[in-house]
Amino acid sequence: MLRTLAVITTAIIPLVFLTSCAPAGPIVAPNAKASSISQIPINKNGCGPVALMNSYEFGSPRWNKAGKTIAGSSNKKKFTNLINKYGRRLSKHSTAKIRWNKNNGINSLDLTDLANEYQNDKKLNLPELKLRTLFIQNNESHSQLLKRAHRELSASLRKGFPPIISIKRFARSPYGRANFWRQHYGHFVVVHEIPSSLPLGATSFTIKYIDPWGGRIKTGTIKIPEKGFFAIDPTSDKPILSKSPTLAIDFPYTSLGKHTLKKNQKSATIIASSISP
Fold first, then answer.
1. Nearest-5° Cα angle at 143, 138 to 146
2. 100: buried, middle or exposed (CB in 10 Å: 19+, 13-18, 0-12)?
């Protein structure tokens, strides 16, 4: 009788263990309750540097230190000092242009250079930040690109740095050829939360992000595109207009210049690149 009971008990234990397992929770910014910084009272085209400041604020202690080291007694003064010293240097990627200006802001290549030069000058002993394109590479499928995007963004959060992502709206010209598209609007936001893994066959994943326009945490979706569009990878040495070359985004609380489109003008909102260690 005792022997029979022992057999039954050992058979039950693995079942209890299996049914008690729960899916892992999301990966969240290390300093998740930090105060976000809004670009609105600072500069309407200041999303890039303000996104960097938010990444420092919401990151792990070593990245927090980078934000606290920026000279200035207020966020506006910190922004101004960062721009005056590092944003007004000549771009290494555009001929005879400075990295940031009040009319056009800054691009992802120059923002990466700005951040690394600041960190190196201050001897903060931080990993170099790298710009990673989120356009299709080496004949990737959209499914493979979705997995790569999730892997790179989640890896950055795990390293303590909430990654900066470049999001854009491309729009078809209301005149001329049907496939003549151009960048209509660009913006930077910071990833605050991401799923720890993707289910088999996933076609999208939802994130929370810090939008410097208003400094609020919002929710959006990164997904395999459902409709065709044309876009250019601005980080490429030879930018070429290609059909559906990246992932689409659905960020309903971030307009990306939607209000400036002409009536019935076709457009697509996309994720272009990320900045992370």
1. 90
2. buried
Longest CA–CA separation in the chain, Å = 89
Q: Are 148 and 132 in contact (CB under 8 A)?
A: no
pTM: predicted TM-score of the whole model, two decimal places: 0.90
The model's pLDDT over 56-103, given as tens digits with 9 standing for 90+, comes to: 999 999 999 999 999 999 999 999 999 999 999 999 999 889 999 999
Report the distance separating Cα 258 and Cα 276, nearest Å: 28
Other beta carbons less than 10 A from residue 222's beta carbon: 25
Complete DSSP assignment for 192-216: EEE-SS--TT--EEEEEEEETTTTE
Tokens of 127: 């990993």
Q: How far is CA 149 from the centre of its chain?
A: 10
**CA 106 to CA 240: how far, in whole Å?**
21
Among all chains, which residue has been given the structure tokens 């004949």?
A: 139
3-state secondary structure 97-153: CECCECCCECCHHHHHHHHHHHHHHCCCCCCCCEEEECECCCCCCHHHHHHHHHHHH
Provide φ and ψ at 250, rounded to 5°.
-125, 95
